[in-house]
Design brief:
The protein has five helices and eleven strands, in the order βββββαββαβαβαβαβ. By secondary structure, the chain is an alpha/beta fold. Strand 8, helix 3 and strand 9 form a beta-alpha-beta unit. The longest helix has 14 residues.
Length: about 240
């Protein structure tokens, strides 16, 4: 059932990403990694488009209070992302119930999170949950084009400093720097001394499919690799 919520804070994270804190008159109850939907009516609908726009965005915080945080990247041709980037503090928006299947399966196993771009959003929420209740090691791999587009770097660095069981690897594909370069999934084998872990993967479809293929070649069982599940159909053979 859709419900109304109020934007109480807006923070620019990167040149194209804003984080929105959204509050409602209810407690948000969801599993970290799940998404809500932003819903609104098009200003000028036509015969080829639905009158109502519905787009999913993942909460990056953990549940149990009256607010969620949404990190949304603006695309110039993106109807919903442009709509959200034009909102201001105090505006009311319509959200849908939270749901989705990319959630932690077993907090007693070592885990690896692999993401690119805004695919980091469910990973941030699941990582926070794991660091609260998990009993093993967590490895966080995040890929971006360059440093200015890296999301949640301050958060990740702080969490890594506070938790000995967490390691974080950033990889940049379009910038030379002191850290790893190239595609983030190419660093799994040389950065992990043990592949008997649960892997959570989210990002552009090509990266998700490539990561699954690489893990399969490395001998990781399919039932230990989790993604949103729609990516295979988006990648041409």
């Amino acid at each position: 059932m859709p419900f109304e919520a109020t934007i109480t804070s807006i923070h620019r994270m990167t040149p194209r990403v804003k984080q929105f804190v959204v509050e409602a008159e209810e407690t948000f109850d969801f599993d970290p990694g799940q998404h809500t939907t932003v819903r609104f009516e098009r200003d000028e609908p036509d015969d080829d488009e639905d009158e109502q726009v519905v787009r999913p965005y993942t909460a990056t915080n953990t549940p149990g209070n009256d607010r969620i945080t949404l990190a949304i990247k603006r695309y110039d041709d993106g109807t919903a992302s442009v709509y959200m980037h034009e909102r201001e503090v105090g505006d009311t928006i319509t959200l849908g119930e939270l749901g989705g299947n990319l959630t932690l399966r077993d907090t007693d196993r070592d885990v690896v999170f692999v993401s690119t771009g805004t695919g980091i959003t469910p990973m941030i929420a699941m990582l926070k949950q794991y660091l609260e209740v998990g009993t093993g090691e967590a490895h966080f791999f995040y890929g971006e084009k360059n440093q200015e587009n890296v999301m949640y770097r301050e958060t990740l660095d702080q969490l890594a400093a506070e938790h000995d069981e967490l390691s974080v690897v950033y990889s940049l594909s379009d910038e030379e720097w002191a850290g790893p370069t190239g595609y983030v999934q190419d660093h799994l084998d040389d950065r992990l001394d043990d592949l008997d872990r649960d892997f959570y993967v989210c990002g552009v479809p090509g990266m998700v499919v490539d990561t699954k293929d690489e893990l399969d070649e490395l001998g990781v069982d399919d039932d230990r690799v989790f993604s949103e599940g729609w990516e295979d159909g988006e990648v041409e053979d």
